[in-house]
Automatic annotation (TrEMBL), chain A:
InterPro entries: Glutathione-S-Trfase_C_sf, Glutathione_S-Trfase, Metaxin1/3, Metaxin_GST, Mito_Protein_Transport_Metaxin, Sam37/metaxin_N
Domain of life: Eukaryota
The name this protein goes by in its record: Metaxin
Family note: Belongs to the metaxin family.
UniProtKB/TrEMBL annotation, chain B:
Residue ranges, annotated region (Disordered): 257-276
Subcellular location: Mitochondrion outer membrane
Primary residence: mitochondrion
Source species taxonomy: Eukaryota, Metazoa, Chordata, Craniata, Vertebrata
PANTHER family xrefs: METAXIN RELATED, METAXIN-2
Similarity field: Belongs to the metaxin family.
Alphabetical list of CDD domains matching this protein: GST_C_Metaxin2, GST_N_Metaxin2
Protein name as it appears in the record: Metaxin-2 isoform X2
Alphabetical keyword list: Membrane, Mitochondrion, Mitochondrion outer membrane, Protein transport, Transport
InterPro entries registered for this protein in UniProt: Glutathione-S-Trfase_C_sf, Glutathione_S-Trfase, Metaxin_GST, Mito_Protein_Transport_Metaxin, Sam37/metaxin_N
Domain of life, source organism: Eukaryota
Length: 300, 276
């Protein structure tokens, strides 16, 4: 019996189990391979050991990046790729590299850099799940990191201007979506009838783009014109994340998960409240000490 | 605006045939050029050879600064300057030469994916090795990169470039990797390429494509460049079909040339055996 495994990741919204691409990739892989993961939506980033998300905790091991988490799950015998041939395994690696090089910059731009999207959707969503006063700082930091990544990997020296790069990254992303659509064709998953690692990665990258409602949606519009990719995302959502399919997780597990999530949210809200009270008490005490210190020379 | 400019450039490119005096610019071959730039340059040379387009290689110390995108190599054809393999492939296609026309849509998607794999893993690993591994940086990179320039300019340029590359590594999450992890990634990439190549002569069976040129450029350079240790080339040597692939392309496209021409494939391997 494998040790219990716990995944900390960003929560869900807009019909998705998580809006963070990497968290979604790991969750999808766990569903495909049948790994029993308890998913904890992070409401307090300070509790995550290194601050990187998603994080898998199993007994004493803490693992942080999606590729490493998937490797760990495979070593625990939860392998979604055992039916793939060697060539298909090589193709998986190549397509994941394609996603990271061509699609990820535009995805980061849509979520974190495009001003309207960031201010009206991304920042409020993430800020509501991070405790004060970190919520004032962390979304901005994530946005700066995203911009940094885009400019350093795509921008040209010496000016690293964003406007020149924007057109290029969206063009590359649209080309990448077209290539994925051609590769998927009419099959249900990328390699036959069973989902594998590549399906998890593609789902993780595409589903937030597909489902989250943004004001500026050029990439989403393009994705919606590729019906097989939309069908791919919807199929995975309905088969693996909502309804029970025979042979996979029983219906009871879903309600248990839902209850657990509600309880976790309540506990987190309480702890947030406690922290706010603690902070205000600390401020009160500090103020009174300060006043006392100031009044000493007056008295004497 | 940039898109309109590009469309205009493509039309200009299509109007003229390939001239005889096309030139490819890179850094100085023996003293200055580094592993990653050499690999990129060799990839472009191989691609142009495969398309049967004549080009002469010109070595300049400031090639990096002459390039429109800041990266080498770049080609000067007629009155246009194009840098990096991707745009060069597009440019050559606009002139009517293409290696990947015979592929269907799914194969084209695969080819692009594998090219990204090489860029994502092999090229990044080469950059990591030459700019983030302290031993290599001290013994090779700092000495070579600024060698045409006098002190202190050589040191300043070298440190500036190192800082730039390290920022990039940090942004993509490679800064925290150790050398062993990087070498393991190289191994994984070579394994994927080896499995994809199988027993075929080229990646897409009978005819070489830009993917073959890119893979050849990187693997050949890794195999024939003397570094502080042999770990990187050992990773590639584990896969015999990749070595045979490199040898086949070298024999077919580079050995027909004179000794003092651009190919330098034979001269570099001679240099390697001399250093041993």
């Amino acid at each position: 019996m494998a040790a219990p495994m716990e995944l900390s990741c960003w929560g869900g919204g807009w019909g998705l189990p998580s809006v963070h691409p990497e968290s979604l990739t790991v969750m999808a892989y766990a569903k495909f391979s049948g790994a029993p993961l308890t998913v904890n939506a992070i409401n307090n980033c300070w509790r995550a050991p290194k601050g990187e998300v998603p994080i898998l905790i199993s007994e004493d091991t803490v693992i942080s990046q999606p590729a490493k988490i998937l490797n760990f799950l495979r070593k625990q015998k939860y392998n979604a790729d055992y039916e793939l041939s060697a060539k298909q395994g090589a193709d998986t690696l190549a397509y994941i590299a394609l996603l990271e090089e061509k699609l990820l910059p535009a995805l980061l731009h849509t979520f974190w850099v495009e001003a309207e999207n960031y201010c009206s959707v991304t920042k409020p969503w993430f800020a509501s799940r991070i405790p004060f006063p970190l919520s004032l700082y962390l979304p901005g930091k994530m946005s700066r990191e995203a911009l940094n990544r885009i400019l350093l990997t795509r921008g040209g020296p010496p000016l690293y201007s964003l406007t020149e790069v924007e057109a290029q990254i969206y063009r590359d992303a649209k080309e990448c979506l077209n290539l994925l659509s051609k590769r998927l064709g009419t099959s249900q998953f990328f390699f036959g009838n069973r989902p594998s690692t590549l399906d998890a990665f593609v789902f993780g990258f595409l589903a937030p783009l597909y489902k989250v409602c943004f004001p500026r949606v050029q990439l989403q519009e393009h994705l919606k014109q590729l019906p097989n990719l939309c069908r791919f995302c919807d199929d995975i959502l309905s088969c693996y994340f909502r309804l029970a399919v025979s042979g996979h997780s029983p219906a009871g597990q879903d309600t248990v998960d839902a209850n657990l999530q509600k309880l976790t949210q309540l506990v987190n809200k309480e702890s947030n409240l406690i922290e706010k009270i603690r902070l205000s008490l600390f401020l009160c005490r500090w103020t009174t000490t300060f006043v006392r210190v100031l009044s000493i020379p007056l008295e004497s | 605006m940039a898109l309109a400019a590009e469309a205009f450039m493509t039309q200009l490119a299509a109007a003229e045939p390939w001239p005889e005096n096309a030139a490819l610019y890179q850094q100085l071959k023996d003293e200055q050029i580094l592993l990653s730039d050499n690999a990129s340059s060799l990839a472009v040379q191989a691609f142009l050879q495969m398309c049967n387009l004549p080009v002469r290689v010109v070595c300049r110390a400031n090639a990096e600064y002459m390039s429109p995108s800041g990266k080498v190599p770049f080609i000067h054809v007629g009155n246009q300057v194009v840098s990096e393999l991707g745009p060069i492939v597009q440019f050559v296609k606009a002139k009517g030469h293409s290696l990947s026309d015979g592929l269907d849509e799914v194969q084209k998607a695969e080819m692009k994916a594998y090219m990204e794999l090489v860029n994502n893993m092999l090229l990044t690993a080469e950059l990591y090795l030459q700019w983030c591994d302290d031993v290599t940086v001290e013994e090779i990179t700092h000495l070579r990169y600024g060698s045409p320039y006098p002190w202190p300019l050589n040191r300043i340029l070298s440190y500036q470039k190192q800082w730039e590359i390290r920022r990039k590594m940090k942004a993509i999450g490679w800064a925290g990797k150790s050398l062993e992890q990087v070498l393991e990634d190289v191994d994984q990439c070579c394994q994927a390429l080896s499995q994809r190549l199988g027993t075929q002569p080229y990646f897409f069976n009978k005819q070489p494509t830009e993917l073959d040129a890119l893979v050849f450029g990187h693997l050949f350079t890794i195999l024939t460049t003397q570094l502080t240790s042999d770990e990187l080339s050992e990773k590639v040597k584990n896969y015999s079909n990749l070595i045979a692939f490199c040898r086949r392309i070298e024999q077919q496209y580079f050995e027909g040339h004179d000794k003092d021409s651009s190919s330098s494939a034979t001269s570099r391997s001679a240099k390697r055996s001399l250093l041993r």
